[in-house]
Amino acid sequence: MCSLFLQVGLSYLRLSVQRFLSSASRPDHYGTLGVSRASSAVEIKQKYYELAKQFHPDRPSSQQSSEKFAQITQAYEVLNDPVTRSAYDEQLVSSKEDVDRFVQTAWYSVNRGDLQRTMDTLTTLFAIPQPLLEQHHSAINRTVSAAMKQLGKTVQAGHAMSLLSALRQSPIVPNRDVYAAAFEVLIKAGKMSEAISVYKYLKEAKLEPTLLMENTIESIRQYRNSESNP
After folding, report:
1. Selected residue with higher pLDDT from 53 and 12
2. What DSSP letter does each residue of 163-230 carry, written as one string?
3. Which of these, 168, 167, 169, 194, lies nearest to 183 by C-alpha position?
4. CA–CA distance, 34 with 147 (Å, rounded to integer)
5. How many CB atoms lie within 10 A of CB 50?
6. DSSP, res 190
7. Torsion angle of C-alpha atoms 188, 142, 209, 206, degrees rounded to 10
8. What is the distance between the alpha carbons of residues 128 and 180, in angstroms, rounded to a whole number?
9. Can you list the alpha helix ranges (DSSP code H) found in 93-136?
């Protein structure tokens, strides 16, 4: 029994050391470019061009400058592409403090109208295990609801449904505001069938529909009844 406990303890110690070494050896691409995790693609590009001009190998420089140029180029290649940036962001999440930062990044991004960064950050959050998200359900739902409203301004019904679907498959439980915001985007886009699906999702979750949802669903039912019984 003691041997078993010792083996488990050693395995846990090895895993902890591996995680520490992985974190310690991982380059800080945001720090290299001098940008925050909430920075937009445009801000990252501007910062890269500024640093690349400063440390470019064609300019008289030291070996240290050449190494710096290689670092900022690598950082830009990762952060400039939404897919590789999202994958890199996922590697940064290992504690509740990290989750805090990503929740703040998503909220900051949606409020400045940077939907691309908002969606990428939410995708990262949706992939995080439940224990790390326990205190963030409300904040994430608030951000998703705000993102839905942004999508509604440009009638991006497809993105709204994709966002809702990703949220429903994550550890986060969508609240009434999220369903209501998605419903409004779909109605505005004329996607009645999808709007009815969202209404059903809300009812299955035992949440109370908004008055707008109830009135709209009733209008759709009356219209369909009149079409089937001319």
Report:
1. 53
2. HHHHHHTSSSPP-HHHHHHHHHHHHHTT-HHHHHHHHHHHHHTT-PPPHHHHHHHHHHHHHHHHHH--
3. 194
4. 27
5. 13
6. T
7. 140
8. 25
9. 96-111, 115-126, 130-133
Q: What is the DSSP letter of 90?
A: H
The residue assigned the tokens 């974190």 is: 23
3-state secondary structure of 44: helix
Instruction: Outline where DSSP puts E strands in 128-190.
Output: none
- Terminal CA-CA length for the chain: 79
Instruction: Encode pLDDT of 16-43 as tens digits.
Output: 434 443 444 578 899 999 988 888 889 9
Q: 141 and 168 in contact (C-beta within 8 Å)?
A: no
96 three-class SS: helix
* Tokens of residue 5, six digits: 């406990």
32 DSSP 8-state letter: H
Q: How far apart, in whole angstroms, are the C-alpha atoms of residue 12 and residue 151?
A: 45
pLDDT at 11: 39
User: Could you give the CA distance from residue 93 to residue 77 in angstroms, rounded to a whole number?
Assistant: 20
Q: What are the b/e assignments for 141-166, b being 16+ CB within 10 Å? A: bbbbbbbbbbbbeeebbebbbebbeb
- CB–CB of 88/23 below 8 Å? no
Dihedral through CA 137, CA 42, CA 47, CA 73, nearest 10? Answer: 90
Give the Cβ contact number of residue 24 at 10 Å. Answer: 7
Residues 78-137: pLDDT tens digits?
Answer: 999 988 888 888 888 878 888 999 999 999 999 999 998 999 899 889 888 888 888 899
Q: How far is CA 143 from CA 118, 121, 138, 146, 157, in A?
A: 8, 11, 9, 5, 17
